[in-house]
Amino acid sequence: MIDYILSGKNPKILFSTGVHGDEPVMVALVTAALKKYKAKLPSYLYIPKVSPSALALGTRKNGHGLDINRCFGKADVSEVEGIKEQLKDYHFDLHVDFHEDTILYEFYLYDCVTKAGESELALKILEKVRGLGVKLWNGIDDPDDPALGNKVVNGYCRSHQSPAGMSFDEWTVTAGVAQGAIVPEIPGMVTKEMKKKIVEAIFQGIMQA
After folding, report:
1. What are the CB-based long-range contacts (under 8 Å, 24+) for 132-138?
2. With the CA atoms of 63, 64, 67 and 70 taken in that order, what torsion angle do they form, in degrees rounded to the nearest 10?
3. Which residues contact 106 (CB under 8 A, 6 or more apart)?
4. Is the pLDDT of residue 31 over 90?
5. How far is CA 64 from its chain centroid?
6. Cβ contact 101:108 at 8 Å
7. Which of 91, 71, 80, 73 lies closest to 13, judged by CA?
8. Would you kindly state where each structural domain of the chain is located, as residue ranges?
9. What's this model's pTM, rounded to 2 decimal places?
């Protein structure tokens, strides 16, 4: 059984953290932000630990040596199957899957809110984060990951399915669990206080978009 937090009936937003175990600070920061903004947010469902075994190990890969963010197109990964079973009866307007890029000082995000073009939500989030004085990434998301190698311009990257394996956000959209998805990549090299401000700015963008 996957641990989750449900706020309200018929949740409109799916929040998730803990896909990768080397990004544990996202769990605490998103949990705190949800408590802070609960009264202002639409109804939501939050999965804090998408991969409990990866978080327990503190590694990108889970207890079976798998990066589960490349496994949502497979049918034999227990943590993935648990997530799919938990979400099978839900239909969200939006999925927000928080990650941390551990080697960057700059922020970027993946946008899969609309079928084409930049979404209003993505642009609002980038505006909010830039307002904190945080630089936006220009370059390649991860040249060493065969599933990535995507170009990021001014913090923006259009999300698309990778031939190396389906990610969580790709699955929620293609399976009809969510109408769209945003994947913020919080810069790992900034202070924890700045990470907190960035996470809160993302929530403010969601509430205003």
Report:
1. 132/194, 132/197, 132/198, 132/201, 134/106, 134/107, 134/187, 134/190, 134/194, 134/198, 135/105, 135/106, 135/107, 136/106, 136/107, 136/108, 137/101, 137/104, 137/106, 137/107, 137/108, 137/185, 138/106
2. -140
3. 134, 135, 136, 137, 138, 155, 187
4. yes
5. 22
6. yes
7. 91
8. 5-208
9. 0.95
Is residue 165 very low, low, confident or very high in pLDDT (cuts 50, 70, 90)?
confident
Of 149, 160, 153, 163, nearest to 183 by C-alpha is 160
Which amino acid makes up residue 160? H
pLDDT band at residue 164 under the 50/70/90 scheme: low
Q: CB-based contacts of 28: which residues, under 8 Å, 6+ apart?
A: none
Fold of domain 5-208: Aminopeptidase (3.40.630)
Residue 161: its pLDDT value, please?
62
58-69 per-position pLDDT tens digit: 999 999 999 999
pLDDT digits 0-9 by tens, 90-140: 999 999 999 999 999 999 999 998 777 789 999 999 999 999 999 999 999
Residue ranges of alpha helices (H) inside the chain are: 25-37, 52-57, 78-87, 120-130, 168-174, 192-208
Question: What amino acid occupies position 90?
Answer: Y
Residues 158, 118: Cα–Cα separation, whole Å: 8
- Beta-bridge partner residues of 74: none
Nearest to 99 by CA among 154, 162, 50: 50
User: How far is Cα 73 from Cα 172, in angstroms, rounded to an integer?
Assistant: 11
